[in-house]
Structures are given as C-alpha cells and as structure tokens.
C-alpha cells in the first residue's frame, strides 16, 4: 500500500505576501478554486488578523471551496486566533495554523524571552485554538536553525496540547538537505507521541535548496509538505508544488502518492503567474517555457527517434500538448525536416533537404530563433528554384 503525502498550498498566504503579487478577493477565489481542481489537500487562505482584506478573503474562499481544508495563519496570540476562528466560520473543513519562533535568535531578539517561556506560549496558543477547531497546526518558526533537542521538547509539548499537525519551517532557507532530513528523523525518533500528529515541511529557497530539503524531510517521515505554485514566496520563494508532485510522479518506486491531478499543473502555473504578475523563469523545472523545449541538434535527433532519450516526463502529464523542437543554429537536418513535415511540407530528396538546411543555418546565425514562417519561406524558395 502506498503512503499518502498531504499537499498544503500556501500560494495565497506565503506566496501572496510577496511585493507585487497581491490579489484582490475575486482573484484569490479564482486561484483557490483552481487549487481545489488541482487536488491540493489544504489551502492556506491568509493571515486574517493582518488586514480586513485578508480576513474577508478567508471568509469568501471558505464559502467558495468545498473539499480542501481551509487554513488561517496566526501568531501565538489570542486576538489573532479569535479573528482566524471568525474568518473560518463558513469553511466546511477548517484549520488554525498558529506558532512562534523557536530558534535562540528569535527567542532572544524577537521575543526577549526564554526557551521555557516559549514552550508555555506555544502550548497556550494550541490549547486556545483548540477551543475553536479540532484541527490545529503548530509552526516552530526558524526550526531550521533551532537546536534539535529543544525543538523535540517543543514538538512534544504542542502535540500533548492537541496539535494535529506540526510544521518544521526552514524559515531562512539555511539548512542543507542532509541536515533538514536529520532534523525530521531526530523528531520522529525522539518525540513521545509523534505519531499522534502529522509532521510537515515548510522550506524556503534562499540557497536554492527548498525542494531538496522538502524531499529529504519526506524521506525521513514528514507526511505533509507546504508548497506554492511556481515556488513563489517570501524572498527567494518556497518549495514549488509542481516539483514535489512531479518528483513523486516520476519516482513511482518511492510509493508515496499525492492527490494532485498533474495535468492541471501547467494551466495552474500560468493562471498564478498572470494574476500575480510574476512571470515564470524560462528554465524553471516543470513549468518554465524551456522545460520541454529541445534546442541542440543532438538532443533533437534523439527525441525525434524516441522521446525517452531526453525526456523523463511526458509533457502531457503536466498539462502541455507536447514538447517542442526549437529551431536554432544548433539544430540539425532531422529537426528541420521534422518541422517541415509537421507544417505539411514533405521532402524526400536529401539533396533538397541539405540545400534548405544550408540556407537555414545562414538565417539561424543571424536570428536567435527561426520561426515556422521562416522555414516555410526557405523551403518555398528552394522548391521554386529547383523547378
Ligand atoms: O517561513 C515560515 O516560517 C512561515 C511560518 C509563518 C509558517 O511562513
Ligand atoms: Zn514561510
């Protein structure tokens, strides 16, 4: 029996707080409905105490979405929890996500507090949230830089207080994959009652390791991952949903499943990029413009003979029609001939193909990318000359 990994999407909270990515309530509802179609298990809809707009969006998303859990973020502060509970009143499945910083630097500089007092505040926040909802998630902010022995004490205390999910954020994106994996393993092995809660990853991408860290956490026993579409989020972003979903899709031997309908990945990516005004970098894994584009002659020749030579995923599995063969000065005769064939120009005479190819190379040296119109023109000129 395969194991289930829960997908917690925070595009509308950690993603939406990025400068320039703000959405209005109607746009947030559009994204939330798309996330529901995509198959995420939890939608973090906002931080309701932060503004009336965020509060209202959580209310409206709760009304618009049917089966995913709707989650609202709070600090470990009673007022935040009261407001979050109120914002979730229409949600069919609701979760309060409360927490506090646990690293020594957060304890000293943010709170001017002590380790013992932070445990008391964490427990009090979970107990307070439990008055409103059964499903309470606790986050240990900056867990990535929190001493493991102390973190284990915090996690044990909040689970005892009723936390159903415990989130271990690498808030600053500092951890190495091996280190983050070890941290989750340490908790799995040293916290009494750990199996009464789901352990969650929440990794930031400051060193480009968010996906690797998340994956390492999953291999050590985390069964929820906090992710965003296109990896958007604070600073360098969060773990990207599509990367985790496709890692598990491609590596079926791991026997870990998500509920993600992978064919919805590409349309969702484009919807979020356009609504948030945040273009996807062309070489972004899975959803970048070049993720399924082959431009070198050697690769094009291989892919035309058998897609599996250079493609580990079927583009259709992420919602694309097909991969693309981009015609550049690096392309070979096979790619040119293939493209002409797709455009309805079938040429069997190899000398003719060669003539067109020489013209094509001269043009490709001047232009970065040769278009379909260009090659039709080259082929037309050549066949006209040849007659
Ligand atoms: O990165 C972080 O620590 C967070 C928490 C608020 C969950 O976003
Ligand atoms: Zn975060």
From TrEMBL:
Alphabetical keyword list: Acyltransferase, Amino-acid biosynthesis, Branched-chain amino acid biosynthesis, Cytoplasm, Leucine biosynthesis, Manganese, Metal-binding, Transferase
Principal EC category: transferase
Binding, Mn(2+): 14, 202, 204, 238
Catalyzed reactions: 3-methyl-2-oxobutanoate + acetyl-CoA + H2O = (2S)-2-isopropylmalate + CoA + H(+)
Cofactor(s) the protein needs: Mn(2+)
Record domain Pyruvate carboxyltransferase: where: 5-266
Enzyme Commission code(s) on record: 2.3.3.13
Signal peptide residues on this chain, from the entry's feature table: none
GO molecular function list: 2-isopropylmalate synthase activity
Tagged with keyword Amino-acid biosynthesis: yes
Pathway listed: Amino-acid biosynthesis; L-leucine biosynthesis; L-leucine from 3-methyl-2-oxobutanoate: step 1/4
Role of this protein: Catalyzes the condensation of the acetyl group of acetyl-CoA with 3-methyl-2-oxobutanoate (2-ketoisovalerate) to form 3-carboxy-3-hydroxy-4-methylpentanoate (2-isopropylmalate).
Complex formation: Homodimer.
Family designation: Belongs to the alpha-IPM synthase/homocitrate synthase family. LeuA type 1 subfamily.
Protein name in the entry: 2-isopropylmalate synthase
Annotated organism of origin: Xylanibacter muris
Recorded name of the encoding gene: leuA
Coverage span on the entire protein: 1 to 387 of 498
């Amino acid at each position: 029996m395969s194991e289930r990994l829960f997908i917690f999407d925070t595009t509308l909270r950690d993603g939406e707080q990025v400068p320039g990515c703000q959405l209005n309530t109607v746009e947030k509802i559009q994204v939330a409905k798309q996330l529901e179609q995509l198959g995420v298990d939890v939608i973090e809809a906002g931080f309701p105490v932060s503004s009336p707009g965020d509060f209202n969006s959580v209310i409206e998303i709760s009304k618009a979405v049917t089966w995913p859990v709707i989650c609202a973020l709070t600090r470990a502060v009673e007022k935040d929890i009261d407001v979050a509970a109120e914002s979730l009143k229409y949600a069919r499945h609701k979760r309060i996500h409360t927490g506090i910083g646990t690293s020594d630097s957060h304890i000293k500089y943010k709170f001017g507090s002590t380790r013992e007092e932070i445990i008391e505040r964490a427990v009090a926040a979970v107990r307070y949230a439990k008055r409103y909802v059964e499903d309470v998630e606790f986050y240990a902010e900056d867990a990535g830089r929190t001493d493991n022995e102390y973190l284990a004490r915090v996690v044990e205390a909040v689970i005892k207080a009723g936390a159903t999910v415990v989130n271990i954020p690498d808030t600053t994106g500092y951890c190495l994959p091996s280190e983050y994996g070890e941290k989750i393993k340490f908790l799995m092995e040293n916290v009494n009652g750990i199996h009464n809660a789901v352990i969650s990853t929440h990794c930031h991408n400051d060193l480009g390791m968010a996906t690797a860290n998340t994956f390492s956490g999953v291999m050590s026993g985390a069964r929820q991952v906090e992710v965003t579409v296109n990896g958007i989020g604070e600073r360098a972003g969060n773990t990207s949903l599509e990367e985790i979903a496709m890692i598990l899709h491609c590596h079926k031997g791991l026997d870990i499943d998500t509920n993600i309908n992978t064919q919805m990945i590409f349309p969702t990516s484009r919807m979020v990029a356009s609504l948030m005004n945040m273009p996807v970098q062309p070489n972004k894994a899975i959803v970048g413009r070049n993720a399924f584009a082959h431009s070198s002659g050697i690769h094009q020749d291989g892919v035309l003979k058998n897609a599996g030579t250079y493609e580990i995923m079927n583009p259709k599995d992420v919602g694309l029609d097909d991969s693309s063969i981009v015609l550049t000065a690096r392309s070979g005769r096979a790619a040119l001939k293939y493209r002409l064939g797709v455009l309805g120009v079938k040429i069997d005479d190899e000398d003719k193909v060669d003539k067109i190819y020489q013209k094509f190379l001269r043009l490709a040296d001047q232009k970065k990318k040769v278009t379909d119109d260009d090659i039709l023109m080259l082929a037309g000129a050549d066949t006209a000359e040849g007659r």
